[in-house]
Amino acid sequence: MWSKADKRPIGSVEMKTIRNADLTHGKCRFACYQSKGCGGYSFVMASHTCTLLAAPNFLAGKPGNDAWHREAAEITGAPYKPDAVDKEKDKVKKAINQEPRVVSKKAPAKAGTDGALPMRLENMMNKDLVMANMAEPPSGGVELPEKMQLELNKYRAKLYNEFYEKRAHEYEIRAEMGAKRKAETLARKRVKKARATNPNSKVDKKSQVQLYVQARKEVDNHSIRKYQRKFSKDLAKWATNKVFNEQERLKGLSDQKNKDDQTVALEVHREVNAKKVKGEDSKAVMTDEKEAVPKKEQEETKTEEQKPAETKTEKKKTAEKTEEKTEEKTEEKTEEKSEEKKPAL
User: Fold this and answer.
1) Which residue from 53, 160, 316, 343 could staple onto 40, CB 3.0 to 4.6 Å apart?
2) Which residue has the higher pLDDT, 71 or 288?
């Protein structure tokens, strides 16, 4: 704000001039306060005229407004404060420019202009495999046992590797051909436009090749992302049915094993009941009932390598024991027959 009539900042715009006999300095200042676009005023007491002033291109060009306010501060002696928002923006820009540039790992650079596209399908396969193994069962589904889940994960990893080894090259070729087609169409359009705008200047082969190389830079990443998504989608579709069939097979095996265990337990229970009916020792029956099932399981799980091999000496001892038992039995039978033949006195 100022009241000197002979000094005005360069480029000041006169918004409004008020003439009134009763006009005072305070009323002029109040009129400037009421106007939104007023940046200052000039009051002449001799003629009772008040002129409302504004910056050039108010709120349209920041550099012009700042220069006008700076010059006005020099005339009036008021302190000049630059815009705090601009200062913060400048600080942020400087901080961003000072940070080191980090090359993105998602889209690695191609090996030269004629190099193959970096599809990285193996990384996509590994990522999809981890996500599939960590996925929770669907709503309403039953959680599988840990052992069965491990077997399914191994089977899924085998399927994913098989699909990658057999089909990865197809997606790489398709991505390369798709990028080539798009780049060629873009280059043809740009050559046609250049010939239409500048008919006197010819587009030679070298410039056409440069246009094709530039178009490939614009198209390559889109082609890579497109066929990466297709690869992951086809991989999941191909492996899901096979994993489901394997899961059902494992469930069937576990159910059959449970049924076999139940039948074995029922047979043991019947044998124990039969022994109880015959009146055999109850303690022996109870021990037989407890030990029958685990013994049978141990016999099934034992392999031929784990079974202890009998030595020659042990075989001889067992053979001698069996011969002694047979001789004792024959002697007992002969004695019983001789006692029956004796006449009663």
Assistant:
1) 53
2) 71
